[in-house]
Amino acid sequence: MSKRVAILLSGGGSNMVALCQSMTGDHPARPVLVMSNDPAAGGLQKAADMGIATDAVDHRPFKGDREAFEAALMEKLLAAKPDILCLAGFMRVLTPSFVRHWEGRALNIHPSLLPKYKGLNTHARALEAGDTEAGCTVHEVTAELDGGPILGQVRVPILTGDTPETLAARILPLEHQLYPQVLRRYADGDRAPVVLR
Ligand code: GRF
Q: Is residue 193 within 6 Å of ligand 1 at its C-beta?
């Protein structure tokens, strides 16, 4: 039986699209729900256009009450009975208790060569540090922000004149290759890291 995948996003959802487009044919998983904390997130429309169920829990009315927001999110997620949860540009920090519920079943993509540059503004920080390489990482979600076991990584050289924008534009298409490859392996029960060149 196919693994059921739910995806959480906050923005345009290009990684979500790459994941969902990959889940066809003999792929061991299928998308069952795409959810957002922003009812206006562009990714929701893209998912709906692909015929995938969508939903949203707007975090704003919860006014910083993370537990209450997550309880509402969790209720909708659980109704979809996902086996795997993929964070794909989901911009809310999740509480340890929410994360614990999904531990061993949740993935995230992060635009840096973890363990470097957890959190935000990763490309700017890599440039500021004078790094010669940047990239992206898919990792398991644990209670430590961007700190779970690494399941896949892709590196790119930083070029003279790079800006956070040029780096992001070079790395995003590689995210779209990396995340589906990791998800496929993960859904097959294989946690050996994927290394793309
Ligand atoms: C990506 O850069 C991802 O690495 C980060 O958020 C961005 C999401 O982009 N976590 P998109 O919504 O998938 O286009």
A: no
